[in-house]
Design goal:
The chain is mostly helical. It contains 6 helices and 3 strands, in the order αβαααββαα. It starts with 13 loop residues before the first helix and ends with a helix.
Length: 198
């Protein structure tokens, strides 16, 4: 009877399934990402995430437990030397599954499974704090060398504003003269209209 055995057997006997997951986990640790089917990736995630979590503390016991699952000393070394230190701050969710469409031959749903901290597809960006202080403490922390170019730029901006206001002042008298010119042209038009009627 198979009561309560609800995980995906992937159409394999238990020894074949364990060997396949072990090999896939070694490849994932060494290459940081592999392409496989979605069903295998979901089972691999359940297999490899506890091992990555165990790699946070580098002890002999942890190494031996991981070696019993992986069976590859190079993968264990890579896991504890490179992967472990990068995931120390992460509580869980060490892998990411990205679906890539269906396979051409049998239309199986394919995906890319990768270690989250070693990704190149999604740029890992630190969120900048947008919180502002009312006391202006952030301005005092800026070095004086960085402030000097900003002051020079401000002086240049002020000079350009002085020049830009000067032409506007010159244009104002011209604008005042323009209505007088329009009035004289209106008078001349009226005289021309009056002349043909007479």
């Amino acid at each position: 009877m198979r009561h309560g055995k609800k995980f995906n057997h992937l159409g394999r006997k238990s020894a074949h399934r364990k060997a396949m997951l072990s090999n896939m986990a070694c490849s994932l640790i060494e290459h940081k990402r592999i392409t496989t089917t979605v069903a295998k990736a979901k089972e691999l995630r359940k297999f490899v995430e506890p091992l990555v979590n165990r790699s946070k503390d580098d002890t002999t016991h942890s190494r031996r437990v991981c070696f019993s699952y992986l069976g590859n000393k190079h993968a264990v070394t890579e896991l504890f030397r490179e992967v472990g230190p990068k995931v120390t701050t992460r509580e869980g969710g060490f892998t990411r599954i990205i679906r890539t469409g269906n396979r051409l031959g049998d239309n199986a749903e394919m995906c890319l499974i990768e270690l989250v901290d070693f990704n190149e597809i999604y740029g890992r960006e630190e969120k900048k704090k947008t919180r502002r202080s009312r006391r202006g403490g952030a301005k005092a922390a800026v070095p004086a060398a960085a402030v000097a170019p900003a002051v020079e730029e401000a002086v240049i901006v002020e000079e350009t504003t002085d020049e830009s206001t000067a032409p506007a002042a010159e244009e104002a008298p011209a604008a005042e003269e323009a209505p007088a010119a329009e009035e004289s042209s209106d008078d001349s038009d009226e005289e021309k209209k009056d002349a043909p009627e007479a």
